[in-house]
Amino acid sequence: MSEVSRVLHEPWPSVERQKLAVTFGMWVFIASEVLFFGGLFLAYTIYRHLDAEAFKAAARETEVVYGATNTAVLLTSSLTMAMAVKASQEGLRRMTLWCLTATVALGVAFLVIKGFEYHSDLEKGLWPGPGFPLHPAATQLFWAFYWIATGIHAVHLTVGIGIVSVVTLELKRGTLPVEATRFDGVALYWHLVDTIWIFLLPMVYLIGRS
Amino acid sequence: MSDAALIYVRHRDKEESYLQHCHTLWSWITTTDHKRIGILYALSITFFFFIGGLAIGAVRLELMFPHGEFLSDDAYNRLFTLHGIVMVWFFLVPSIPTTLGNFLLPMMIGARDVAFPRLNLVSWYIFIVGACFAIFSIVAGGVDTGWTFYTPLSTMFSNGAVISAAAGVFIVGFSSIATGVNFITTVHLLRAPGMTWFRLPLFVWSIYATSLVMVLATPVLAMSLLLVIAERWLGMPIFNPANGGDPILFQHLFWFYSHPAVYIMVLPAMGVVSEVFACFARRRVFGYSMMVYAMMAIAVIGFFVWGHHMFVSGQSQYANFVFSFLSFMVAVPSAIKVFNWTATLYRGQITFEAPLIYSLGFLGLFTVGGLTGLFLASVPIDVHVTDTYFVVAHFHYIMVGGSVSAFFAGLHFWWPKVTGRLYSEAWARFAAIVMFLGFNTTFMPQFIMGYGGMPRRYHVYPPEFQIWHVMSSVGAVVLFVAYTLPLIYLTWSLFYGKKAGANPWEATGLEWQTASPPPKDNFKTLPRVKAPPYRYHPDREAPDAENREPETMQGDMT
Fold first, then answer.
1. How many other CB atoms are there within 10 angstroms of residue B148's CB atom?
2. How many C-beta atoms lie closer than 10 Å to residue A56's C-beta?
3. Closest CA to B286 of B6, B534, B2, B34
4. Do A35 and B219 touch (CB under 8 A)?
5. Most buried among A155, A191, B71, B405, by the most CB within 10 A?
6. What are the domain boundaries of chain B?
7. pLDDT (0 to 100) of residue B441
8. Burial of B458 by CB count in 10 Å (0-12 exposed, 13-18 middle, 19+ buried)?
9. Closest chain B C-alpha to A153 CA, distance in angstroms
10. For the segment B354-410, what is each residue's pLDDT rounded down to a tens digit?
């Protein structure tokens, strides 16, 4: 009974129901996130349609090596996250801990690589404004979207790293039992961040190289 | 361990209400009780209601004179912008869902709390953080863009505190999203045994529909404001035509949220008056299932009409045609609701308590607002009256005449439940009537001068419009009195009001089957639902109010 009272919270009658609510609530939030990025992607699509050549020219300047590496890193982090969920369902506490730690490490690795990429972009002067190296002017639109979209994605990832770190620490200290219902929700959020990146990859790195 | 053994054991003190549970300030600002969070929200939005009201008071005073007597052009612009931003995002959008919705939704479906109680508290803190940004932008000199933040004014030319204001609205949006996620999950997963979807009270349906709109529309506003901030702060030329950007794109993104936002404001109002009409006419709501479908239809169609704000923006004639058609379409479910409320009242055993008077005010004012909305959905008329006071009057009839009247109806209807006290019925009726008269005195002249060509947002105007402006300003004074009166007599009732008892209106909902004020866990034993809502009297011809038959409660509490 003591395990149950640690897992179960007000106002839920059973752990199963509570678990259902966590994933359900997260799916509803994901719907909201889809509309959030949807607004940005819509604007991107319209401008790319209006200035296709400028977008191609601008996208050729992105660092595809960094982008490809980061895609691999992030997809691997989703794998470790999925393994963490499975391990928690099986009650394997140590395995869960290791998988969550690996997920956090991969997330941080993504941000570090992204930092190097940003540094390289800035060296080339690709921040929109006076003296922008590319022409025509609409290339600046592409780079504006580059900075905003990857920036918002990085913020989402940072939030994800924070949440997963907290869960990992609580699990390690024992304040959170491995049966806790929140792993599924955390994992769903992590996969959302990953999925957004899968959309960003072609929009940012591939369109200039077709 | 089997789940059968996972029975939750509660320790519940007998007869201790949620107000008596703990008295410290700390216990209030760390509460996860949906009822207390509702009250935290109520105090917050009341503060903003009066801030927004003071701003428009100064504007109306200024508009009594055609040439501008007190304010500079710039101060005038900042005041009406302040009014718009505060009233839309810090009062109207959160008004009914976060106060009455928070308080009542779990009780009406027979639950002990919302699905995620801590997220509920977090949403209030997000609201407060957003509010701090908004207050900072006021203190920092205000914003002169109007509440719509249109580009390129907001991104390139305005010299106000646009970034902090937009950031405030951005942040407060996430409080809406959190509330929406919470309510949707609550309605799906926490209904009491027997509370099927088509036994839900219409107020619950309205909050559910509103939550869907909140969750799906608000993020688009968040993104469009983020783009404005990125352009203004970081120099990203998103909407700058010099770099191939399109300012009209901002309008599309903005109205994709801000038209559905009208339904965020008015759907909960529809839910409130449905409860009130049924109770004070002692009748079932006429056409219950049609009411449900109509609300969902409004929520869905509401997503596809945003272009009617942009008839003069240069969008294509074909787009205008489609948006015009869809805007007419959204009037159909609205009209169904108006007719059904009327039919609910027909042959009812009506008694004119204050909540009903407020609701009748809603019915009339919403109808006027809705019908003038049809004028505006029609492209030729809209081109004629775009950006005039006709538009201002139209949306105030919906949002103030409609939503605010309904908010007061709900506030009065559930006040005995929330506080356990009865207010002065005579004063409440008086205030309701004053509100109706004051509202019409304020906004009816605006239809006339708007049709005559008086543009909105203008500081100086031709003298022939002065008579209408003076009438409108006088009405605003009456309205101010009507809004202040409840503040006085409701506060008075907290200390001197009669004890209300569990069910002072003899209403049938689950929320009336527990003590007033309710215990911390809402119900001593969770109810089982055995019947549809609104079992007031049978559909056949009924005796008059004195000889009325007893109602049947919705829940089985044993």
1. 18
2. 16
3. B534
4. yes
5. B405
6. 36-556
7. 97
8. middle
9. 13
10. 999 999 999 999 999 999 999 999 999 999 999 999 999 999 999 999 999 999 999
CB contact under 8 A, A28 and B234: no
CB-nearest to B188 from A13, A24, A147 is: A24
Nearest C-alpha neighbor of B372 from the set B406, B344, B334: B334
Query: Cα dist. B531→B106, B253, B485, B527 in Å?
Result: 18, 44, 39, 12
Q: pLDDT tens digits, residue range B470-516?
A: 999 999 999 999 999 999 999 999 999 999 999 999 999 999 999 99
Q: Domain holding A172: CATH number?
A: 1.20.120.80
Nearest to A11 among B184, B190, B237 (CB): B190
User: What residues of B are in contact with residue A40 (Cβ under 8 Å)?
Assistant: 223, 227
d(CA B217, CA B304): 11
Shortest CA gap A111–chain B (Å): 21
**Chain B positions in Cβ-Cβ contact with residue A43 (cut-off 8 Å):** 227, 238, 249, 253
Give residue A77's domain range: 26-209
Kindly determine whether residue B249 and residue A128, on different chains, have CB atoms separated by under 8 Å: no
Contact (CB, 8 A) for B518 and B19: no
Contact A148 B227 (CB under 8 A): yes
Q: Nearest C-alpha of chain B: how many angstroms from A128?
A: 6
The ipTM of this complex is 0.95
Terminal-residue alpha carbon distance, chain B:
30
Asked if A32 and B249 come within 8 Å (Cβ–Cβ), the reply is no
Instruction: Look up the pTM and report it.
Output: 0.94
Q: Which chain A residues have a beta carbon less than 8 Å from that of B222?
A: 36
Q: Which residues of B92-127 are buried (b: 16+ CB within 10 A; e: fewer)?
A: bbbbbbbbbbbbbbbbbbbbbbbbbbebbbbbbebb
B36-556 CATH: 1.20.210.10
3-state helix, strand, coil in chain A (%, to 5): 80, 0, 20
Q: Which residue of A has its CA nearest to B176?
A: A32
Report d(CA B555, CA B503) in Å as an integer. Answer: 13
Q: Is residue A14 part of a domain?
A: no
Give residue B441's identity as a one-letter amino acid code. Answer: T
Each residue's pLDDT, cut to its tens digit, for chain A (210 residues) gives: 456 777 888 889 888 899 999 999 999 999 999 999 999 999 999 999 999 999 999 999 999 999 999 999 999 999 999 999 999 999 999 999 999 999 999 999 999 999 999 999 999 999 998 889 998 989 999 999 999 999 999 999 999 999 999 999 999 998 888 888 889 999 999 999 999 999 999 999 999 887
Q: Angle of helix B247-281 relative to helix B288-301, nearest 10 degrees?
A: 170
From the candidates A3, A8, A30, A36, which should be mutated to test the interface with B, based on the most B CB atoms within 10 A? A36
A37–chain B nearest CA distance, Å: 7
Of B317, B299, B311, the residue nearest B386 (C-alpha): B311
Place of tokens 């700058």: B240
Label residues B287-326 b or e (16+ Cβ within 10 Å = b).
bbebbbebbbbbbbbbbbbbbbbbbeeeeeeeebeebbeb
Residue that has been written with the tokens 């769903």 in this structure: A188
- How many Å apart are CA B403 and CA B101, to the nearest integer? 14
CB contact under 8 A, B253 and A43: yes
